[in-house]
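PROTEIN DESIGN WORKSHEET
SECTION A - STRUCTURE
LENGTH: 315
TOKENS:
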């Protein structure tokens, strides 16, 4: 009895044109899930919000839509509380963003040196960012209490009269801004620290050999090397300030942003229009105004950064 071994049959390979076509299409298959999710949860809500902003839609009957055209935008721009919210958004954004980024830059500069326990300091700076907005805001609301708050107690020790942090315009905006500063300073400091560590050490050594002090090194080596990182943090902080919502909502617990709307932001105004007054059409119009405002602010920041880069390149 003889046994004959037969080689296994090879699987049929697709034709060469089909293989080339699959090789060209395979990269798109990897990015398809991202674009599918973006279209479903990003692009479609954006376009549908623009569609709803052209109609009169009430929360009690969302299926009954009445065409208004630009009527929601006209009513929005004619509302004095909208302009108050826009002004508050700008003021709180400046009060919270500028000190926040300056403090983050200083902390990152300190942590860039070899300090004992600097890993512990880096982890500690991320703790406020990991804290929920609700918990942080409720704690700060107690700290800024008029009668029994710790801040007024410390001011009283210095001989300063108690401040009504929830009723005063500037005082309430400072209180809300302090929550934003506390939560995001450490996060931005770690971003700056990562940017500083990417700057070549040879530049610092050359500057030190030329007799430059640490302050001079910071001005002429660190800051130019951090320019892209600073632009990124400015843009992200601007977007975050325009969308500020949780802190002013939970600071006193109402949608109006205080008795006289003194710290109501655009995000809080949009929420009040949609879920307080049930005007979904005007809320959608407010959302699109915020979107256009964010785009304009980002373009302005980018244009200013490019102009400075060109001027320095021409020197």
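SECTION B - SEQUENCE
RESIDUE ASSIGNMENT:
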């Amino acid at each position: 009895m003889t046994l004959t071994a037969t080689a296994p049959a090879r699987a049929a390979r697709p034709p060469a044109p089909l293989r080339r076509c699959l090789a060209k299409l395979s990269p798109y298959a990897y990015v398809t899930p991202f674009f599918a999710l973006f279209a479903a949860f990003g692009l479609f809500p954006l376009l549908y919000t623009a569609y709803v902003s052209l109609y009169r839609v009430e929360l009690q009957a969302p299926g009954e839509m009445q065409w208004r055209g630009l009527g929601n935008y006209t009513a929005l721009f004619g509302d004095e509380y909208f302009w108050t919210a826009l002004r508050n958004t700008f003021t709180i954004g400046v009060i919270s963003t500028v000190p926040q980024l300056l403090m983050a830059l200083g902390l990152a500069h300190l942590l860039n040196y070899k300090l004992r326990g600097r890993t512990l300091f880096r982890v500690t700076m991320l703790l406020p960012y990991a804290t929920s907005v609700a918990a942080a805001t409720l704690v700060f609301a107690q700290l800024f209490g008029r009668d029994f708050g710790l801040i007024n107690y410390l001011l009283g020790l210095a001989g300063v009269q108690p401040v009504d942090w929830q009723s005063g315009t500037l005082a309430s905006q400072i209180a809300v801004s302090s929550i934003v500063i506390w939560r995001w300073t450490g996060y931005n400091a770690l971003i700056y620290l990562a940017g500083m560590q990417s700057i070549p050490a040879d530049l610092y050594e050359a500057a030190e050999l030329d007799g430059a002090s640490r302050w001079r090194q910071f001005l002429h080596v660190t800051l130019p090397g951090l320019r892209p990182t600073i632009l990124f943090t400015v843009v992200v902080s601007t977007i975050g300030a325009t969308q500020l919502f949780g802190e002013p909502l939970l600071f006193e617990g109402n949608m109006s942003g205080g008795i006289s709307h003194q710290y109501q932001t655009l995000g809080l105004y949009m929420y009040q229009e949609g879920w307080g007054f049930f005007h979904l059409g005007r809320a959608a119009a407010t959302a699109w105004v915020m979107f256009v405002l964010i785009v304009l602010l980002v373009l302005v920041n980018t244009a200013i950064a490019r102009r400075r880069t060109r001027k320095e390149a021409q020197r």
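SECTION C - NOTES
The first strand starts at residue 55 and ends at 58.
The chain has a mean pLDDT of 86.
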